[in-house]
Write a structure and sequence with these properties.
Layout (H helix, E strand, L loop, with lengths): L1 E6 L8 H12 L3 E4 L5 E8 L13 E8 L11 H4 L13 E4 L2 E2 L10 H5 L4 E2 L12 E4 L10 H11 L2 E4 L10 H8 L2 E8 L6 H15 L6 E7 L5 H13 L3 E6 L7 H11 L1 H6 L3 H8 L7
Parallel strand pairs: 1-2, 1-3, 3-4, 5-8, 8-9, 9-10, 10-11, 11-12
Antiparallel strand pairs: 6-7
Helix pairs in contact: 4-5
Length: about 300
């Protein structure tokens, strides 16, 4: 079969389902390539992660077209035999990084997040590390809430034994941080450690555990980043409070805008200030950044 693949989002971050689909078809000797409009295919797979990404509209010459990903609906799931195959990293030219999930699901059921609706309101192991890692120097974990999984310590041991650099891309639930988990994290080679402070709910616990983690973990705080959700159900004063508090605690905040396409100008300015780390460290307060940019930057 001649197989064409389309990554609708077109982002720099690789599409894991397409890498697995590619590996599956190549295992049968099929010809797999990125879709090219002038070619004809037996089957074309179209994957879209975000529902706000415009759909692919060019003409597709194929006997069969299969669309998948959360951008097309929460019921889209890969068949078992594809979900559990080792990814084809060569599809994106990836040489020394592994991507994958050890766990799925999350008990939090946050209204702004699709994970609980799609994967269930509990965290459960779906793979061992060897399912997507084979000696690469770096591992990018995509787990939504690894610390909520009953097998968390065993899974952290697998990461320790890999001796690879670990990037927890989606964040660890700081509210579930324990001394046992901290002891495991201290044994990891941390590339980047992400937490999140999304709303005002349980803010006291989040602050308390962030302080405790910093004291006990004894790692380079430049490797710790905290996602700050804005434009959802918090006011701007609380957004600033979280950013200033994280800076005070020596954590690196990273602003994530909900419904970014319709976000007000002030929210987009806040993200530009915080996420550009050179500017963030040179302008102590948001008010300072506003003064500097007032006459230099035009926003749509």
């Amino acid at each position: 079969m001649k197989i064409g693949l389309i990554d609708v989002d077109g982002h720099n971050f690789p599409n894991l389902p397409l890498m697995k689909i590619s590996a599956f078809h190549k295992s049968f000797g099929d010809d797999v390539e990125w879709f090219f409009p002038l070619n004809r295919y037996d089957r074309v797979y179209i994957s879209k992660v975000f529902d706000f990404t415009p759909d692919y509209e060019m003409c597709i010459q194929a006997d069969e077209i299969i669309k998948g990903g959360t951008g097309y609906g929460l019921e889209n799931k890969l068949p078992y035999e594809i979900e559990n195959i080792y990814p084809d990293y060569e599809l994106y030219g990836i040489k020394n990084t592994a991507y994958g999930f050890l766990t799925r699901g999350c008990p939090r059921n946050c209204p702004f997040c699709i994970v609980s609706k799609k994967e269930g309101r509990y965290s459960y192991q779906v793979a061992s590390l060897r399912k997507f890692w084979n000696g690469q120097k770096e591992i990018k974990l995509l787990d939504p809430n690894l610390l909520a999984c009953p097998d968390r310590l065993e899974l952290l041991d697998q990461l320790i034994e890999s001796k690879a650099w670990i990037d927890f891309t989606q964040g660890l639930d700081i509210r579930l941080m324990t001394d046992e988990v901290i002891d495991k994290i201290k044994q990891l080679k941390i590339k980047m450690l992400h937490f999140a402070w999304d709303t005002d709910e349980q803010s006291d616990l989040i602050i308390q555990n962030l302080k405790y983690f910093k004291k006990q973990a004894d790692i380079n705080m430049r490797k710790t980043r905290v996602y700050v959700l804005v434009n959802y159900n918090t006011n701007f004063e609380f957004d600033l409070y979280r950013i200033y508090k994280l800076k005070e605690l020596d954590y690196d905040p990273y602003v994530m805008i909900y419904d970014k396409q319709n976000a007000p100008k002030k929210i987009r300015e806040l993200q530009r200030w915080v996420n550009n780390k050179f500017i963030f460290r040179s302008c102590e307060r948001f008010e300072d950044y506003k003064k500097v940019t007032a006459t230099k930057v035009k926003y749509p």
